[in-house]
Protein 1
Amino acid sequence: MIESINSAVLFIIIANVLVSMKGFNDYSFLDTYKFQVSRILSGEKVRMFTSGFLHVDWMHLAFNMYALYLFGGIVSGVLKTPNFLIIYFGSLLTGSLYSLLYHKKEPYYSAVGASGAVSGVIYSSILLYPDMSLYLFFIPIPIPGYIFGIAYLLYSIYGMKKNLGNVGHAAHLGGAMGGFAITLILVPSLISTNTLMVILLAVPIVLLLIFGDKLKS
C-alpha cells in the first residue's frame, strides 16, 4: 500500500521521523523547539508548529504516524493535496492555540507531538467517509470510524484531566476542532449530506467548549 501513499502524507511522515529522531538524541534541540507556554508567550511562536514534529519516544511517534498514514490517505484522496495540507497545518495550529489557551497560567507546561494535526485529519476523514470501518491491532472486529474518532477525543479529555505524560492532550482536542471546522468550510455540503455525523462529532466539541474549564478542577 506504500506505493499509493500520497506524496504530501509521505513527506510529512518522513519529516516527523527525522525531526523526532534528532530530538530523541539531542535534548537541547528538543528543548529549543518543543511547545512551552512561557517561551511562546515571550515571542517564540514558531514552537507552535515545530513542536508538532517532535515526539517523546518511538511508540508515540509510531502511533501518530500510523494514524496519519491511515486517515491522511482518505483526506488527500477526497480533497486532494492542497486541501489536505490546509487541514493538517490548520489543525496543528488550532491544536497549539487551544493548548496555549488551556495552559496559559502554567508557564512551564510543555508538550510535543503531531497529535493535534493528526486529530484534525481523523475528524476530517470521518466527516468525508462516515461509513469507514477500521481494524485495529488489538481488536479483531471492525470498528466504525466515528466510534474511533469519538473514543480518541474522550481519551484526550481524560489525558488532559490527568495530565498524562509529556503529550499534548489539549492539542488533540484543539486539532479535532480545527479539522472539523476547516473540513466543513471546505466542503459545506457535508452539513446537509452527512447531517447526523456532523452532529455526532460536534457534540463532544461543543461540550468541551462549554465545560472545558472544569477539567482543571
Protein 2
Amino acid sequence: MGENINQAVLLIIIANVLVSMKGLKDSAFLEKYKFQIGRIISGEKIRLLTSGFLHVDYMHLGFNMYALYLFGDIVSGMMGIFNFLIIYFISLLAGNLYTLKYHRDEPYYSAVGASGAVSGIVYAAILLYPGMSLYLFFIPIPIPGYVFGLGYLLYSIYGMKKQIGNIGHSAHLGGAIGGFAFTLLLNPPLFALNKMMVILLSIPIILLLIFGDKLKSL
C-alpha cells in the first residue's frame, strides 16, 4: 500500500507540510489562519479551510500525513482523484463545522490540523476496502484497518474530553461523519456490499452525535 503514491495525495501532503512549516516559523501567520471560534463567527470564514493545513508541531503533522499516506491511495485509486478531493475537503469542512458547534460558547477556543480531513479519508478507505490490514510502527503483526479507524476516533473522544494541546480533536468526529456520508453518497452500492462495515462504523458516530455534548460535563 502506498508504494506508488497518487499525485493528488502527494500534492495534499506537500501543501500540508509547506503551510505547516510556514506556521511553525511565523506565529503571526499561524494566528491569522488558525481555527478560532470568535474570529470565525465574526466573519473570518476562511479559517474553516486554512486551519486544516496548519499543525502545532512536526509530530502532529507527521501522524496526520502518515495516516493520509496509508489511506489516501485507497480512496483515490478506488473512487478517482476528483472524488478523493471532494471527500477530503468535505471532511475538512465538516470537521471544522462540527468543532464550531461543539465549542460554540468558547469564543477563544482555537485549534489547527488536518485531522478532520484525514478522519474522513480513513473512514472512506475502510468502507471501500474493509479487509485491509496495516503494519504500523513497532507492531510486528498486521492490524485490521477498521481497528485503526475506530481507535483513531476513540482517541479523538479522549482528546475532546481532555482538550489536549491545540489539536482539533472534535474535528476528527466531524470529519469522520463527512467522509462516511459522502463516500456512501458517491458510492451507494457500498450499503449492500459492505453492510456490516457500514453498521460498525456508524455506531460510534451515532453515539457521539447523541451524547457528544455530555462529554463536557463528565
